[in-house]
Automatic annotation (TrEMBL), chains A, B:
<feature type="domain" description="HTH marR-type">
    <location>
        <begin position="25"/>
        <end position="158"/>
    </location>
</feature>
<dbReference type="InterPro" id="IPR036390">
    <property type="entry name" value="WH_DNA-bd_sf"/>
</dbReference>
<protein>
    <submittedName>
        <fullName>MarR family winged helix-turn-helix transcriptional regulator</fullName>
    </submittedName>
</protein>
<dbReference type="InterPro" id="IPR000835">
    <property type="entry name" value="HTH_MarR-typ"/>
</dbReference>
<dbReference type="InterPro" id="IPR036388">
    <property type="entry name" value="WH-like_DNA-bd_sf"/>
</dbReference>
<dbReference type="InterPro" id="IPR039422">
    <property type="entry name" value="MarR/SlyA-like"/>
</dbReference>
<dbReference type="Pfam" id="PF01047">
    <property type="entry name" value="MarR"/>
</dbReference>
Length: 162, 162
DNA sequence: TATTGTTATACTCTATAACTATA
DNA sequence: TATAGTTATAGAGTATAACAATA
């Protein structure tokens, strides 16, 4: 189960192909989606397939690496997931031995999620693979342009640290 | 059927909330996903809910507006959809009276997809709503920054017209 | 034999509602 | 009563395989 998908060949033809983008050229959501297709292929190659991690699982791993013992509620908020969705996600990764849930001492309604040593090892491996992936992904931009892109995306959502 | 979803309130708390993004701060795919959440909310408010159009349906409408009589194969390529997925999408929109498929004279395997007058009217309405949406969405950026963001996203995927 | 589009099928993603337990 | 997490259920999205017609 969870068979790794097909090996996904190299950079395919630009998504738009022969057609005129028309009004979509000025629609940010569409351009973000196009870029996400591109990023998704790089992700599958570098992380998804070799490490058998879905994008959300990878994000969760990175988030826990930086925020050990977080409550599910905060994780769901950060990943923009519904509470039930996060629960099944945690179930799956706990069953895989990557993380563990324990009861909180302060508020006994909530829980604390932590990476197991195995989860930490995978997180480090994934973080390393991510660095390689980023290089390949951003190869068409100068370092300055890459940094600018990150800053603009962040600013767009009203998040600090520009 | 196709009941419009909940009215989705104003700009909610930044997705990351209280947690540290950790390594994700440098992962383009994650930052694109965060921005897409933001864009998706604006889309639902301005277009999705009022016009009862899913993102793909909106994109298809815009694409047909600029490329009347396109073949399904080209549409699928431009939208990064599988052929079966596009078929059901076209079925749904044809049933709704927005477009029509006809046989091609040159190659009788393929077909030509065209907007009906009703589809054209909705496309124009959607394009107008998109312009309003973009203004709200890009309000945190200067016009120059907005243009730069579009250019960088395009360059990232190796698409021309920078 | 290769290609276009379609149908059938199944699996993943994601949301809502209902339930349990704490506060 | 409000909140955190879970369970159950359903629906939307998406992929693969099998098929039909045409090239």
């Amino acid at each position: 189960m969870t068979a790794p998908p097909a090996p996904d060949d190299d950079d395919r033809a630009p998504a738009t192909g022969l057609l005129d983008e028309g009004a979509l050229a000025q629609v940010l959501g569409y351009q973000l989606a196009q870029a996400s297709v591109h990023a998704g292929r790089a992700y599958a190659r570098s992380i998804g397939t070799p490490l058998e991690l879905r994008p959300v699982e990878f994000s969760l791993l990175m988030l826990l690496q930086a925020n050990d013992g977080s409550a599910p509620k905060h994780l769901a908020g950060a990943l923009a997931l519904s509470a039930p969705h996060l629960t099944v996600l945690l179930d799956r990764m706990e069953e895989r031995g990557l993380l563990a849930r324990s009861d909180s001492a302060q508020d006994r309604r909530t829980r604390e999620v932590r990476l197991t040593p195995q989860g930490q090892a995978l997180a480090e491996q994934a973080a390393e693979a991510a660095r390689t992936m980023e290089q390949a992904l951003l190869q068409r931009l100068t370092p300055g342009e890459g940094a600018l892109l990150f800053e603009l995306l962040r600013k767009l959502c009203g998040r600090p640290r520009c």
